[in-house]
Amino acid sequence: IDTQKYFVVSLNNIGGCHGSTGPTTILSKTKKPFGSSFPEVSVIDWVNTQYLLMNYLKIECWEMVAGGSLGGMQALQWAISYPNKIKKAAVIAASPRISSQNIALNEVAREIIRKDENFHDGNYMQNNTKPKKGLKAARMLGHITYLSESNMSKRFGRRLQDPVTKLDEKINYEVENYLQYKGEQFSETFDANSYILMTKAMDGFDPAKKFNGDLVKCFKKIKARLLIASFNSDWLFPKEYSMEIQIAAIKAEIKSSYIELEGDYGHDSFLYYSDEYSTALKSFLENNE
Amino acid sequence: IDTQKYFVVSLNNIGGCHGSTGPTTILSKTKKPFGSSFPEVSVIDWVNTQYLLMNYLKIECWEMVAGGSLGGMQALQWAISYPNKIKKAAVIAASPRISSQNIALNEVAREIIRKDENFHDGNYMQNNTKPKKGLKAARMLGHITYLSESNMSKRFGRRLQDPVTKLDEKINYEVENYLQYKGEQFSETFDANSYILMTKAMDGFDPAKKFNGDLVKCFKKIKARLLIASFNSDWLFPKEYSMEIQIAAIKAEIKSSYIELEGDYGHDSFLYYSDEYSTALKSFLENNE
């Protein structure tokens, strides 16, 4: 995206832990953090808060809303909720609703966090502690699902970890060491309540629900053009999810294109640059036929 | 298997927790359980102990060694280690070596267990406690990988859990409730050290390693006929793994057949009866061309 031509607005979601109000925010009344009392939020809530920001910034209409994964869900929800306020939506590595396998993986991650002895039902800040072990293991699990199997095989295969750089004596393989390292890093910087809240928002996303599960009906009022993109190595949100959006878009007679991109990083591919990916986004943004 | 015609010998593995000597066994010297001091074991160790049992039982030659998953690995190892002591090997839902993704998933499960406050470096019995929370979450994760996505979708989809039968107020979906229940059950009956030890044995299985990774060379001395079977819904040990065994068998010029079976339970399918599965095993066992 050429920032000489377009203003880019990028924001944190309510409930997160890197800027916006979230579970770590101190309530002025009680002088205590929200902790587990922070309300559940949904993708629709996020889009609605973004709409408030849009009005505050006096923006009439977005040229494009773009996002990957949970961000792709928000882009799609924008097109549904505010058809007159958005021209294009780039829905990348997303899904019109996640599968029970995805929900199950999210639930295991949450279970791991909740059962950390330092979680204290979410009120760990008041106890001056942090459920780091739980957050670390949850992220290790997440990390596996974000990567593709082929990528893991190429990077690690079955190579044994060099004993000198082992993070723990119980580790045998490089891939274990890598996950331990990544999980540890994450647990230092992320908030456990935010993690739970965000995965719950992902589980709950289901715009077709109000239309008795009929995605086509739900899409009928969309006016924006859609770009729907998936990555070939993504097994968490495989191309079938994106194709479901595309097929519903065709049936609803709205403008949309679907593209399957090459990507070597599984679900995480949307975070990495490639010429193909960049070209697809750029021409979608600049082409107004 | 017609037990009027064949004697079936079925045994627990050393290191397990349902019979054979394992981490919960009390050492006569110290009057304490092995706990984490129980040595690491490998698939080769298991096959060797089974060979001792074979001699003890005065069995000259197995008609067939059959097993699924870690059991399939043992069947294959039997054919490699003792070519004159086995006529047939049924290698079901197995792999000649597991992928880094599998290792990573196993490591996350172990991490969850080890970080349970009640784990005490594996010496929880001495502390009169049990890392049940960790074992439960590890099993929940395992359970997802054993099931197929289609099976989960059919059984649970995105149905919300009935509030009356909720196991925990934080649960939203049926699939979450089911996993919590299954995990809880497992954590009551299984031993955490055994779980760690068994997944390590699975990670370590790699018969081709001694042959510089050349599976064909490794298979050269096999005399047994092989039946190699995978299940169409198994994503943990997909058919590619079984086909790798079959292709190496063909190149090594040993007798083998490969079959992909229908199964609706993912990796767990090998535990369930189907006519097709039963017929395949039966005709393999009874046909001596």
UniProtKB/TrEMBL annotation, chains A, B:
Keywords: Transferase. This is AB hydrolase-1 domain-containing protein. Residues 4-271 form the AB hydrolase-1 domain. The keyword Transferase applies. GO terms for molecular function: homoserine O-acetyltransferase activity. It comes from marine metagenome. InterPro entries: AB_hydrolase_1, AB_hydrolase_fold, HAT_MetX-like. One of its GO terms (biological process) is homoserine metabolic process. Pfam families: Abhydrolase_1 (PF00561). PANTHER family: HOMOSERINE O-ACETYLTRANSFERASE.
